[in-house]
Structure formats: structure tokens, C-alpha cells
Amino acid sequence: MRVAVGGLMHETNTYARAATTLADFEAYQFAVGTELFSFRGTRTELGGFLDGCEELGWEVVPSLYAVALPSGLVDHGVFEALVDRMADAISGGQRPDGVLLALHGAMVTTRSTDADGDLLARMAALLGPEIPVVATVDFHANTTDAMTDHVDGLIGYDTYPHIDMYERGREAVTVLADVLRRGARRVVAHQKLGLITPPQAQYSDAEPLRSIMEKAHALETAEGLSITVTPGFPYADIDSLGLSVVVTSDDPLSAKQVAETMASDIEARAGEFTFATMSVADAVDRALRVDGPVALVDSADNVGGGSPGDGTAILAEWLARGGSGLVVSLTDADAVQVCFQAGVGSTAKLMVGAKTDERHGLPVELSGSVRVLADGRYVHRGTYATGITTHMGRTAVVESQGNTIVLTENRVMPFDSQQWLSIGISPAYCRAFIVKSAIAWRAAYGEYAREVVDVDAPGICTGNLLRLRLSGDRSGMIRPKLS
User: Fold this and answer.
1) What is the DSSP string of 344-407?
2) Is the peptide bond before 252 cis (omega within 30 degrees of 0)?
3) Are 78 and 145 within one domain?
4) Are residues 189 and 318 in the same domain?
């Protein structure tokens, strides 16, 4: 068997101002042709594709794999150019017997609110009805009929934090192998709910998602099918927001019935998607009064949701209280430049953070000793995308008033503890640390936190979705209860 493999992934926050360019894809994860084989051995869906194909003795036709960090609208010309490159690679030689694609499911371009659906429709038109396509999607996919109508399987992550990407890639290979062996196409049933939930309420190890996923797994075993639950990504002003249930089966009636049953059960539990936050002042007060380390969760500046990663509201309050023992990372290329010019051991006077926009606080003035200067590269050693290299850009560690401020040129998702361990910082020995994430930080830093405080800070990834200006009539949507 000859199987084409590729991927194009972006989680688009339409409230972020800067457009996502080709350079953003090339700066994060970008591979063309045989470069895709460098993902062998990584715990990603692409790594799962490659290992699964190798075990089955399939010939892999590598196409394009491009991933950009969550950010603003993708330039539509860039999207089309990337899809063209993928299509050319897949159709340039002997036709493949099947296709495996790694997608996100929440990509929005400057001209399309359903870029993933557009991509899959393009592949279906290119390949014809006889070539099966199986795709993986993120837990936060805003799934649409256009996605499910053009595939023989749509396999989503089961976990948040996302620690099962590799397993879902292997599952996609299994589904494709079954289609190729039996010569019978699979049916993909899609049920969209009018339920929009914030990421803070989507933790898969807590209720209600824990028992929802347990039921999905039990049905998969009992019925011999594949179930995907995608809670969705709420930070996009589009019509396809919301939780979906997707069932892949060779029995159309069974797929439809299971999807409807799962959707009905989830909708009945809409009121359980709750979470609690503290004001910035109360959160800092709490962290200063208890034994640490305390994780101060700045989910409104969630880098993994498209925020700039330079929010300063919590840091400013901490410094105003005279607090010490805090660790925080900020994206600030200007401050990094000042530190590199000053050199290690020097004292630098800085204005740090809040330089992207006015929605994440104000720049904070501080003076501190430059402790470390580094190139900012580290390899993931934890459970999220193990083996992947992340580049923080040039990185400076500054100590100010007993606090540690990590300054990076590039935005960094706090998904692996090597982010700090690689530059000599362990959160185990601090009083408190700020994580710019909603839930995914737990895979990296959850073991260090004696206490977790979700902070109601300002930002475009706020858990209070009612703060976001949603256009159009969404009066029929079920909104989460905030406590």
C-alpha cells in the first residue's frame, strides 16, 4: 500500500490582531517531503502515522506538514499556497491507496471560517471517491459537516492536556487499514450541540469531561466504532463554534444513533461545565499567604489559545505587594535585546511586557540582574509532544526583588517543564509561578503546584466568554455557568 501523509494545523483566535503568515508556520513546525520523516519517534499524531505505516509495511508518500502557534487569522493566500503544495505532493506521482492527514479543526482564514473543511473538500475533489482519507483533529476542533463529509474517519484527541496525540495517530492508521482491507467505506456521523464551553471547564481529568470520555470509550469497545468528542475552541467569532460528537463506523444507522445519544447526554450536563476564578488582587493575596509553590493560572493570556504571552496584570500586582519568589515568562523581544546588550551579571533597567496591545495589562518597570542568556532551544521530555524541539528565541533570565522573570523573543506555550529547567529554573523551589495557559500547563507543571489558583486577569482568552463581543444572533446557544 502507498499512503500519503501530511498535515496543516492552526488554532485561530479571531480576537488576536496580527494575521498569521507563512513565516509563522516556518518558525514553528514545517516540513516538506522527506523532511516529514524527522518526526519519527515523536509522540505526535504525525509520529503515530509514520510508526503505524512502518509496522504495516506501507510505503509512505510524504507531502507537507505545517503547524503555526495559535494566533490571529491565517492569511488566505498562505493557506491556499500550503494546500497547493500538499496537493501537488500527493498527486505528483503514482496515486496513493489512502491518505492520512493531521489537522486542527479550528483554522480560520481571512476568507474562510472553515479552512479545515475547505482543505478536506479539496482533497476529496483531487483524489476522487475511491481513495479513502482519514484525518486527526484537536480536542478543540470546531467540527463541521464539511469536515466529516469528506473523510472515512475523523479521529480527535481524548485528553486535555493533549497527551494522546500519538495514540490518535495510530488509531487513524488502524481505521485506514480496516477500510483498505475490507474495501468498504466508513460512515462519519456528526452531531453539533449548541454548547459553547471555556477551556477552563474542559479538563478531561475532571467532571464532566472525565465521565463523558469514559462513556465514549465504553461505547467504542461495545459497538466496535470510533467516537470523538470535540468541546471546541470558543475564541473565534464564527458560526461553527461549539461541542460536537463524531462517530466513525461501517454501520450508518449505528453511527447516527450513537452520535445522537452521546450528544443528548452531554447537553443534559451543560450546567456542569463550571469553573471558579479569583480576582488578580485576591489571587496574589492568596499566593502570598500559603505555602507554595502556587500555580497562578493566567488563562486570559493563554499562549496556546492565541494570546501574546506578555500579560502583566499578575506580575504588576505581585511587585506592588512587595512579593518575592515568583517565576514568570514574558514574550518581549525588546527587553531581551536590552539584556543581551547589558550582558550576564549586569543590572538592566527594563520595561517588560504588555507591548502587543492594551488588553493584557501595562508594561512593568523594573530593574534586575541579568542571570542567564541562552539561545532558548529545548527538547520536550514530558508527556506532551515528546521529542519535539521548541525554540523560545534568544532568552534572558532576570532576577528582580527576589523574583525571576524569563524574557523570550518568541511566544512559548508552557507545555513542557524543559521550558524552565533548560535554563536552570525549577518551579519546585519558588513561592509561586505564573502559567499562561488554561489547562495544558498541567502536563508540564502540575506536579509542582501545591495549590492552583485560576486568576481572572484581562486578555483575549478570558474564561468569561460573555466578555467577548460575539457578532450575530447566538441567543440559542447554551452558555456555561461561571462560579
Assistant:
1) TT-EEEEEES--S-STT---EEEEEEEEEEE--EEE--SSSSTT-EEE--SEEEEEETTEEEEE
2) no
3) yes
4) no
Containing domain of residue 114, as a range?
Answer: 2-272
Residue 312, in any domain of the structure: yes
- As for how many domains the chain has, the answer is 2
Cell of 206: 475532571
Residues 234 and 158 in one domain: yes
Written as tens digits, the pLDDT of the chain (483 aa) is: 999 999 999 999 999 988 999 999 999 999 999 999 999 999 999 999 999 999 999 999 999 999 999 999 999 999 999 999 999 999 988 899 999 999 999 999 999 999 999 999 999 999 999 999 999 999 999 999 999 999 999 999 999 999 999 999 999 999 999 999 998 788 999 999 989 999 999 999 999 999 999 999 999 999 999 999 999 999 999 999 999 999 999 999 999 999 999 999 999 999 999 999 999 999 999 999 999 899 999 999 999 999 999 999 999 999 999 999 999 999 999 999 999 999 999 999 999 999 999 899 999 999 999 999 999 999 999 999 999 999 999 999 999 999 999 999 999 999 999 999 999 999 999 999 999 999 999 999 999 999 999 999 999 999 988 887 543 333 333 333 332
